[in-house]
Structures are given as C-alpha cells and as structure tokens.
Fold each of these.
Amino acid sequence: MSAPPSLRNFAFPFEQMLRPKTLAAGEQGTPAAKPRLLGTPASADRLHKPFRCPGSATSTRTTEKPARKRRKVNYAGADGENEEGDEPYSNDDRLALATRDINRFPVFKPKDKDTAFKTKFIVPLKNKDVGGYNAFRPAPLLGMRQGRVFVARPLHDPSGEFAIVLYDPTVDDKPITKEAVEPKLSQEEKKSMDEPLVHKSLAEILGLKKKVDDDRPRVPVVIDPRLAKVLRPHQVEGVKFLYRAVTGMIEPNANGCIMADEMGLGKTLQCITLMWTLLKQAPDAGKSTIQKCVIACPSSLVRNWANELVKWLGPDAITPFAIDGKASKEELIQQIKQWSIASGRSVVRPVLIVSYETLRINAEELAQTPIGLLLCDEGHRLKNGESQTFTALTGLNVQRRVILSGTPIQNDLSEYFALLNFANPNYLGTRNDFRKQFENPILRGRDADATDLDRKKGDERLAELLNLVNKFIIRRTNDILSKYLPVKYEHVVFCNLAPFQKDLYNHFIASPEIRSLLRGKGSQPLKAIGMLKKLCNHPDLLDLPTDLPGCEDFLPEDFVPKDARGRDREVKVWYSGKMLVLDRMLASIRENTNDKIVLISNYTQTLDVFAALCRSRNYGCLRLDGTMNVSKRQKLVDKFNDPEGPEFVFLLSSKAGGCGLNLIGANRLVLFDPDWNPAADQQALARVWRDGQKKDCFVYRFIATGTIEEKIFQRQSHKQSLSSCVVDASEDVERHFSLDSLRELFQYRPDTTSDTHDTFKCKRCRKEDGRQVLKAPAMLYGDTNTWNHMVNDGETGPLGKIQDLLLRQEVAEKEVSAVFQYISH
Ligand SMILES: [Zn+2]
C-alpha cells in the first residue's frame, strides 16, 4: 500500500474517530514511520487503552459529528515528507481519491413507505420570514385557535375532461329577495338578545369567533366524473332537467317532476346520478343538498335498484338500506326506526329502497324524518289520488319528488292532476281549483254541442295547462337510442296452425262449454282463454285428452298421451305451426351463423317444450324463470353473454320479472306468444336491443294466424297507438270482457293470412295478391299499420327478399302466412 499517511484519515476514518489523539500523536511524533507499519502501533495503542463500549455516550457523540469536519485535520507537510519513496499525486489521483465511494456524501435511499408517510412534515412556506414563522413555536392552546381557513371549491373540477356542470353560481344564482332574508335575520337577532351576557366565550370576547355559515361561498355543482363519463348525451340532458326541477330552478315553489322516458333510455342511471349529486354536493361549498333519499318501487325491483347503485357508483360508494323482506317484522321496524332518527354523520345508509307496500305499512315510522328526495319507480300507480299508497306517501316529510314512469300518461285530466299534484303539491291548486280552472272548461270545449266560445276557452285553458305541466315532465322515446345501437329488424310473424292444432282449436271453440260461455252462462272465461293461448303454442301444453273431452277423434296416429310417454320425450314439432317455424330457425342459426337467441314465453310449460326440443337437437340452452334468485340469475346471464359459451339458446319466462336483465350476448329474440300488456312485451324485447349490443338485431313476435293471439295483439297495438294507460295485471283485462269481445276472442279465421292486417283496411297493399305496393311515409314503432307488410307467396314474393335469412327460408314452407317488418333506422 503506497498511500501517504494523510490518506489514512480518509481510508480509516472510523479508526481515527475512535482514537483521534493517539493518531495525531503518532503522526506528529513519528513522522518518518512508513505507512504500511502504521497499523501496528495503532493496534498496540489500542491494547493499552481501556476498553470502551461502542454504545457509550462519548462514542455516540463522536459518530454524530458531521463527517465533513474530519477534513479539517492538518495535513501540512505530510506530502513533502514522503516525497522520496512515493510518486507525487496528480490532480487526477486526488480527484479519484476524493470521489471514492466512502468519501461521498451519504446517498439517500428511498425510505420505507409506511414510516415515511407517518412522519410529520413541515410545509415550506413561500413567504417565510423569521418574525412571522417559527417552526418550533408550540401549537396555540385549544380554544384560542383560529378555525382553519375554508377553501371554497367544488367537489369535482368544473373544467375537467368529463365535467358536466349542473349548477354554476355565476349563471344560475338569482339575487335572494329581501323577504327571504329578513325573517331569518330577525330570528337571529332575537336569539342573540335572549342569550345571557355572562356566557360569552373567550373567543367571542376576543373577536375570534368563527363566522357561521352566513357567507358560505357558492360553488359549481358538477356531476361525479365516474358517472359523467358513462352518461349519454340524452341522459345528461335528463339529469340537468331533473336537477333544475328538484332544486326549484324551474319554479321556485316546485321541487318535483316526472321522468317518463321510454324503457331502455336509462331512467335508473339518470336518477342515480341526480341522487348521488344531491347527496354529495350543494351550491354551498362543502355541503350536501340532501341527507336521505327514499326509492319506492314494486317489490320485485328492490334488489334491482340496489344492484344498479353498485353497478354505477362502485361497490363502496354507498350502502343502501334495501328492504327485501329478509328481516323479520320486528327487526324491520327496529331498522326503520333507526334509519329515521339518524341524522348528520350518523346517516350511514342514506338511501332507503323499499316496496310501495312496505312503505305504506311503515309510513308512520318514517313520518317525522326529513327525506330530501323521494323517487317513485313505476310511478304510474300513483295516478289514483285516492289510493292508500298515495295517501301514505303524501304523509311523508319529503322535500323533493321524482316520479319515474316508462308508460305515457293517459290523456286523462284527473290522472295528470294526480301525478303532478303528487310531484309538486299545490302547484296546480286543490282538486277543486283544478276542476274549475282547467278540467271543466276543457271538457266543455270538447263536448259535441259546445259553442265556439266554449271551444275557444277550452283550447286556451288546455294550452295554459300544458304550459304549466310540460315544464315538469320529460319524455323521450327509444328513437334517440338508434344513434348508438345497431339496426333492429323487428317482425311480427304470423304462423298458421298445424293441422292437429287446427282440429283441436275448432273442436274447442265449438264445444258446449264455450257455447254456454258465449251465451253468458259460463263462469270461467279466464280458463278458456288460457287453454286457447296454450293450444296456440303447442298441444303438449294441455293435458290431452282430459282437457278437451271429445278430442280423441282427432288425435294423430303418432300421438302418445303424456303419462304413457315414459322416457320418450321427443317434441313433435309438427303438432304446432309456430314450433315448426322455430325449429327451422334454430337449425338455420346453428348452421349458418354464430348468433345466439333468446326464446320468451308466458308459460313455463312452453319453456319445457323448448328445453326438450333443444335436448333432442343437441343445442346447449340455459333457462331462467321466476323461481330463480338474483345471484343465480346473474351467473346464468353472464354465462350466456360469454361469447365463448357453448349455449346459444336462452329460455326466459316473461313472468320472471325481466327488468334489468341484459342479454346482449344474443342478437336474436323470439317472443313466442303475445301478452295482454304491451309494456310486458316491450320489456321482454328490450333485453337484446340495448346498450352494448354490437350486432344487428332480429326480433320475431310469433302470432298464430287467425286465432285469439291476433286479438290480443290487436288490443295491444290499439293501446299503444292511443298511448293510453297500461293495465298492471293481465288478469284485469281478461276479467273485464264483454260478451261481444268474448265472442270475438273465440272466433277462428282459417282463411286469412293475417286477421290483423285485415282490420287495418290497408290501402298500401293490393287486394288481389296482398302485396304491398307503397311504403308508409314514416314507419312508426307503435303502429304496425305503418310497418312493411309482406305476404308469403313464394320465393319471388316480398318475403323472398327480406333482409333476414331465417325468414327468407320460410318461403319454401307454408307455415308463415304473413310478416310485418319494422326497421329501426
Ligand atoms: Zn298492408
């Protein structure tokens, strides 16, 4: 080692630190000593020294000394004395030595994350002056502290990428009128006069008291970006409308509205956005507009709402209180009580989701608690202003109301009044005011023998009413969706009955049972209607021959009674016209495409037949009916929507409460039988043609030609085109048939291609061959009269040129008699 002695100090700083005196003495006392021998006297020295514990106080102090100071050792003369034996050091050498690792300043390694975040830190102040800032000054005593400076800023950045501003103080703020402020002031004054003077706090005496609330700055209300980025433009518009309506920005004395968008436009998402915004934000910085929200809905939708909250807001955003009937009655009352007394920070479940029935029963428990927002899903059930539900709901202490309804409001003034009066109590005055002001003049004006003056007055009042009312109603139709969705081809497919079906049908409607029914003597029209509907699907839905006495004569040779079938469950598709068509369709899908299809029926027995058909043809299928719980449903749906899944058929009961079921894995759908309630059918149809669908959709609504199904379908379309109210339960319809309409129902017209088309008295189709010669100027979804009408008259006919291959192949067969076609865009 040729290092000069001076360098030792660098090379062994530790050693030096331990015995600085000895070393210094050694250097000065034995200047000629060779460097390589230096170690030995040092070790010897150490032996003479008393032992010192390395952890002792002195040594610690030494180590703490900054390393740099060590350089102050006097090196004078060290170089010169060693000149002879060693080469002089060049600057490069010195530099190299000086930058040796050990001589560098300590390198900062990243600290352990956990400890680093826990340590205190001091904010470096921009204008740090010695007098004003002292980091070591103790914190001021409690009570003397000035409140933290409140920075007024919106919860979400109003200039961000996805920012949708619902309220902007620079635009929307109206100056508060004097009347609104004055009573508040006088109250405060009164309060301060009542206060005893002695109880002033120190802070108050010193003038340090925080100013309370007076001048909270106004900030923009901005939709949470996670919602804003999933909202469609029409939904943004909807949320803006809802927000303005419920915060009194449309009319200061009205805080309610009606959201009547058609199914599939995302009413739920719009309402969740509104609710979330109100719960988290207000124009007053840092405050919320509401503390609690109640969602009232049919009991079958309670879970659905809870799931939607998670779906849109994420799993941790909100814990709803969903009353889904799992708790016992006592538990439930306890929970509701707790919910209603909670306020401020103790509101841990701000959203109560409850069925109308439960809400009605427990309205008393909830009467006192202030409810910031009440959402009424399927709100058209509030159209009866006298119903118990209506009364119970109006008894609640609610500040804002939103009625959701997918069905248009009936052209009925009292219904209008009931709904709007619920949303905005007293906005239209009392029922009597309304009658005097609007209802009577309008009705009088419409009367057949009304005078011109009456008419004029009626029209005026109607315009006035609509002006008042339309401010609070938003309704958009499905058409605006077509921008985002692929084309939907919807078809009404009229299928002839199979010969066996036809015999049974004729036999049944001529039976003594039906005859006495039509004379007004029978008592079970419901049962008869049900049997006919089932027969239209497939004779296997009935228990033959028991259900139809006397039908033995028509039973085909290959017919096997149900109980004699044993393991032979093969479906005889040729017993039913509709089933034959379906069978061919499935085969064609399987052979020519990788599409998936949803099959829907009102009857679980039809699903049984479908399932048996799929089994015998080796088609993978999944089945969802009313017996299945929500989590299982979801798994099934996910399985089906998986593009890799082998199951290409999904069997769905229309009674399963299809709300929210998203079956976009399929782009074809068969509605095997019509329902009395068009809304139910619409709901079923909306499973496939909805957000996320990428392929063109083909929807087929099967109707047995000339049968009761046509009558049901006609009733449906009639209702839709009149946009009248929807009856909630199909039983209601079936119960209220006049004898005339019963007679109509129990007719069978075997000679027509479509009884429905006949009722149109369509002028666009030729009499001789039924071919359409003129397209309708505009295709209206709700009116099948404007759809394309096609008869099945062979390959050269219109059906041979239809866009859909499944229907095109039907020209070779006789089952399909006619098709109505609707193209979305
Ligand atoms: Zn026509």
Amino acid sequence: MPALPLLLLSLLLLVAAPAIAKDVINFCKCTCGQNSTIIELTRSALTHLPHASEPIDTDTLAPNVCMNCTRLLCGIAEPALCDGAAVDDDIAPLCFQRDSLQDELIVSGFLLLVIGLLAWTVLRSHVKPVVDRLWTRYGYTNVAQDSPN
Ligand SMILES: *[C@@H]1O[C@H](CO)[C@@H](O)[C@H](O)[C@H]1NC(C)=O
Ligand SMILES: *[C@@H]1O[C@H](CO)[C@@H](O)[C@H](O)[C@H]1NC(C)=O
C-alpha cells in the first residue's frame, strides 16, 4: 500500500476513534454524613446491588438515568447509609459520568494499532531504500561481479 493514502487513512481513523466507541456510564454517589457509596446506574448493576432492601425495577429507569439518582434510590440501594450519622444528616445524591473501561481499552487498542501502522509506514519508506541500497552494493553487485560473463 502506498505510504500517503495509508497515512491519510490512519489520520482519519485517529480522529474518528474517540467518536466510534464513546459510551459513558452514569454513577450515583450517595452521601450521608461520613458514609458514602457509589452506585453504577446500569441495568445489570442495579439488579445486582448487594445491600438493596427491595428489587429495583430497571424498566422504569428514566431516559436520562441521572434523573433516577435520588434519595429514594440511595435509600433502597444502601439502607444502612445513614446509620450512625447525625440526626440532621440526610442523603445527598450526586450523579456523575465516566467513560466505561471497556470503551477506553478498545480506543486505546485502536490508537496503538493506528500508531503502529503509521510507524510501520514511516519506517518502511525510510528503511527500505537503505536496505535496497545495501542489498545492491553488497549482495547483488558482488554476485554480478563474481559471475562469469
Ligand atoms: C426513575 O425515574 C423515573 C422518572 O422520574 C421514575 O418514573 C421511575 O420510577 C424511576 N425508576 C427507579 C427504578 O427509580
Ligand atoms: C455508616 O457509618 C456507620 C458508622 O459511622 C456504620 O455503622 C454504618 O454501617 C455505615 N453504613 C454504611 C452503609 O457504610
């Protein structure tokens, strides 16, 4: 493959990569006095909460799942959250986002591949003429000189 198209293609992929696998996960941080807990706002995590006082119906989750990061949810997910806290302490829910680890790995792997391709392209275009020259000088030429006419 010629170097320039490959280079352009690689650059294009480099620019596009973060957009391809962008998928954020929402988390709900519930704080009560000194205690806090972080709940992953995904269906599978919400159905496997270790301390939940009652099952959470993930079919009713709001399209913007941060809407479900509420005192109610915190109270169900972690019933003992306010145990030992001062009487006037209340649950404070806070929604935040993070890229999923899996996506980050995919993007990183993808970038490595692209960078590898770029490096290979650049190296090849620089190394190949040198190798060819050496080959011509020490390999091919000697054979040509030694061979009888
Ligand atoms: C999520 O939020 C929506 C809208 O506020 C509500 O109707 C639904 O019951 C909530 N679901 C859960 C599991 O909290
Ligand atoms: C909250 O903290 C109290 C002690 O301050 C503790 O007894 C309780 O188990 C904690 N709850 C959680 C959910 O960590």
